[in-house]
Structures are given as C-alpha cells and as structure tokens.
Amino acid sequence: MQQHDLISRRTFLSGATAVVALSLIHQETSSPQGEPPKPQLPPLRVGVIGTGLQGQNLISQMTRIPDIHIAALCDIYPSNLKKGLTAAGPKASPKSYDDYRALLEAEKDLDAVFIATPPTTHKEISLAALQAGKHVYCEAPLAISIEDAKEIVRAAEASKQVFQVGHHQRSNPLYHHVLRFVRAGMVKDVTMGRAQWNKKQSWRRAVSDEKWRRVLNWKLYHDTSAGLMGEFGSHQLDVLTWYINKRPVSVTGWGGITFWNDGRETFDTVHCIFEYPDNVTVNYSATLVCTHDGVFEQVAGAGGAIVLRDERSWLFKEADADVFGWEVYAAKEMVGDEEGIVLIADATKLLAQGLEPGKVKRQKEAGKNSFFYAIEEFVANIREGKKPHCGGREGLQAAVIAIKANEAVRNRTKVTFQPEWFTV
C-alpha cells in the first residue's frame, strides 16, 4: 500500500478522521458503552509562580478546568499579583506570596506548580519545586543558556514528577491533526518551511518606581532575554522542527533595532535561515515594528503547502499533486488569491453529530486556546502518569535552537549546531 492510500475518501469519512481520538491529549470524556464512569477525583491543588501577562493567561484558562483548584499565587511585583488574584476569581481565593520559596514552604499540599517567570529564573524555581515533590509546568523558553536548560532536564528526569514545558502547540489538537497530514505525505516530502511573527508592540512596560524598570522590562536586555527568537521563535521553530522530524544543521541570522530606539538591547526585527538535513530549509522572521501579515507557520513540498494561522489551517495543493479522493468532500476557502482545503481538527465530534467533517468548517470552542489545551494535557499527564508531548528534552531542543539562532542574529553570522548541545 502506498503512503497516500492511508487517507482515502473512505477512511477519511468513516474512521481515519478520528485523529483527535487517537491523540493522547484530547480524548473523549464519556466512558465506552457498558463501562462504569471513572471515579471523580478531587481537583489538583496548584500554585502559579509568576502572574504577569503569561501567568494571567494561564490562570484565566485554569478557571475553565474543573480538575484544577488554584490554591496559591506568587509574584514579586504587587500589581502583577493583584491582577493574578483577579484572574483567579473569588471562588478560588488563592493565598498570595511575593517569594516562591515561601510559597513552596507554606503550601506543602500543592500537587503542582506553574512557572511563568522570566526564563533566567526558571532553573532555580524548577529545581526547588521538583525538590519539594511538585509536578512542574514551566513556560518556554526553558532557559536562555544551554547549561541551565540541561540542568533543569537532569533534575526533572531524576525526579518522579511530571515535567512539562510550555510549548503550547504540542498540546493543540489542530497541530496534531495537521501533523497527521504531513506524515501521510499530503505535501509529499517537506522541502521547505516558513514562519513569522509580526506584531507592532514595544515590549516596554511603564513603571512608576525606577527600581522596577529593568525587572519588568527583562525582555529588552541580552542578559535576561533571548529576544524575539526566544519569546516567539522558540515556539514556532519547535513546531516546524517537530513537523520536519529532524534537528537543524545550521542557522544564519541577522537583525537590528529598526524602530524602537529607546535604549533597549534586544532587536525589534530578526531574520534567520535554517538548514536541515536533506537540503530542507526554513525561513524565519519576526518584528515588533509592523503587524501586517501576522503570525503563521508553513510547510511545503512538491505536492503543495500547509499553512497554520490563528487556530486555522489549510492545505494548498499543487495542480499536478496526487488526488486522494477525500478532497471533493472537503470544505474550501479563498485565502488571498488561492483556494485552500480547510483541515478540520475536531472530526470525531462532528462524526458523532452525524456530520461529514469535510463539509463543516472548524469552529473554535469559545474561549479555549493553546494555553487551555496545554493545561488540560498537564492535568491528564499527572492523573494518568503519561509522558508530556513536550517534556524536558523537547524543551531543551527548542531552547538550544532559539539560543543559537539568537546568537547568530546578534553576531550576524552562521552557527553550526553541535550534537552535544542537545544531549543531557
């Protein structure tokens, strides 16, 4: 059987579209017919360390998950802590701390902690939380030094706890669905990838007290941030590396401060070209100067291209690409000047409703985003003892790629990736 036969018209409509059910991160909640329902377990008691914007995003999604009770919050900046408490809501009424060590000492019955602090603090907090016996969810990038990232992974693997890194798309049902199409040869062999992150924003936070200026604006300085490559490139390149299924061989980068001339050190615009094995190339760019054309990831080959943008995805087939049969049933949309086949992530739910997945455009579940799916997976991993889709080693790989790409950008040079950078 040829590879493209894996997705035929028949299997697409009857069973192969049950990709979400095959995913470990988005299983059906109802019990199989004839089996008793699983016992209701008490919610996991969690603490959130770091309640800035990223922490608040996590908290807002946690409030949608019954299996979580937000018991404690921690931030060194009073305004952030206040906003975190507001996001948690009056029902949770978490205790508040301004020192993560005090939180870990006082809240001994916590099951897990979420770490959403600047990446230079991830190592000390992760190691302390693991030592305290807590499951750990650590935001990405894992670190901005390779040795710090390795030390975190070593500690995580030496513990009995679940350690998950916040590369959220690894938990997103849509990205898993698209991966199935990539693996099944819908674009044939991937020969190139592209990704970009364009949003006009300064990153600078206004402060009333000078003592907080550098603390709150950590993204703007080389000693506390890997810049755009760390904050956004690490996520998008993790997706492309996951899809290509090989690590990059080298990266050439350049960039500069082109608009936000306000005393910052990290660049507001970056460009990179990555070389992967077998002559596969990936172009990456990010800017804080212009929002036009937004954020997307793309993989392409001789059969066409797949684009992911804003929780949507499309397959754009070449005129001479193989015909698989299911395309006639698929929903189609004009994206710019091209017609794209809409890739549906929640096919099993649609089939259960008596609908044909290819004829229904995917509707994003209200309020749920990639943070929700990552938290949902983390809870399931703790409950069921499963390995995260993005554990320590995946987080290390993404961190190494971002750190060395940032190095290439800053020095306007080419960096060749060394195997030992990725080994623990």
Can you offer a commentary on this structure?
The chain is an alpha/beta fold. It folds into 2 domains: 3-25 and 173-365 and 392-416, Dihydrodipicolinate Reductase, domain 2; 44-169, Rossmann fold, CATH 3.40.50.720. The chain has 13 helices and 16 strands. It has a 10-stranded mixed beta sheet. Helix 3 packs parallel to helix 4, helix 7 (146-158) runs antiparallel to helix 13 (392-411) and helix 10 (227-244) packs across helix 13. The longest helix is centred in the last third of the chain and has 20 residues, at 392-411.
| CATH topology label of the largest domain | Dihydrodipicolinate Reductase, domain 2
| CATH level 4 superfamily of the largest domain | Dihydrodipicolinate Reductase, domain 2
Overall geometric form: globular
Structural class: alpha/beta
Order of helices and strands: HHEHEHEHEHEHEHEHHEEEEEEEEHHHE
Secondary-structure arrangement, i.e. CATH architecture of the largest domain: 2-Layer Sandwich
